[in-house]
Amino acid sequence: MDRVLLLFDDLQYAGHIEKTLRKMGFDTETITNEYNLNDKIISFNPDFVIVKGSESSKASSLMVGKRLKETIKYNGKVILMFPEDQRPQSEDLIKLRMDLLLIEPISAIRLAAHILSLSGGNHDAIMDRILRVAHTDLNFRHNEQQILKQMGESIDTEIQMISERLKAEDEEIVLDDKAIQSFIDPQYRTSVPEKPTEPVVQSLIEREQEDHSADYLIDPDYNAKLRAEVTKNQEELPFRIEAYNQAISTVDQDLKVGISKRQTKKRALELLEVTSPSEKKGRDEERKQFAKALWKK
User: Fold this and answer.
1) Tens digit of pLDDT for each residue in 17-37?
2) Is the dihedral of CA 98, 100, 106, 111 positive or negative?
3) Residue 56 main-chain phi, psi, to 5 deg
4) What pLDDT digit, counting tens, does each position of 178-215 carry?
5) Which 3-state string (H, E, C) describes 9-36?
6) pTM of this prediction?
7) How many CB atoms lie within 10 A of CB 66?
8) Class of domain 3-170
9) Fewer beta carbons below 10 Å: N end or C end of the chain?
10) What SS3 class is residue 245?
11) Where are the domains of the chain?
């Protein structure tokens, strides 16, 4: 299962979330400050990083989001949770590295549903398991109720809402092509053309053939000229091949592979031995001039 790293400033809430995710099969670890976040990402290699913290704590969701985008190389999913009174400004959102932004308070059931939606795939069995725990585990229900009390909600309402949302996502929507077309084009219902009768179709085909028949007529003189060029090239081709074979017979290299690095280096050294200092200096000047002209462009 996926690994989840929790960076929470509230240890009690972090323990509740960690127990919930472990019951779902996730491998979790929790840290309480952002200073060793980079080392923990390298050692734990999480698939999800979930951050919950206020600006006055050691784990600020805003600062962690900026660090994950600017300095820390991390390719997993990021969920940032903000208090209601510390919502990020619109100009700060572009500076944050995140896949999902949540506003507190967030129940463990809802956070689990968000994680499963980001991980992709079919996780109905996992979600059914956590919903069953929410119905039967009294300790879990108590912790969830303490969180939801701040929202004025109950755990039963939360379970019902998430269950209905999962049910709605599973329903298959069948789309009618005619309905889609009529929605795109309101005049579609009245403007659908009737199929033309067979005589009309035949007359259209014949007319199209007549229209295009003139496009493929070639001038006889031009046709004769093309034939003469093809005949001439066919006669000259054997002589060209023979001349090419003679030209490459004295070349000391494999034309398919080319010259190896060792041969290239050897030839370069041989050229240096027979080149005078004045010639070397002249070639260096030409290279400098070429480089200057190239950079000017």
Assistant:
1) 898 888 888 899 999 888 888
2) negative
3) -90, -5
4) 544 554 454 554 454 555 444 544 555 566 555 555 44
5) CCHHHHHHHHHHHHHCCCEEEEECCCCC
6) 0.53
7) 16
8) alpha beta
9) C
10) helix
11) 3-170, 220-250
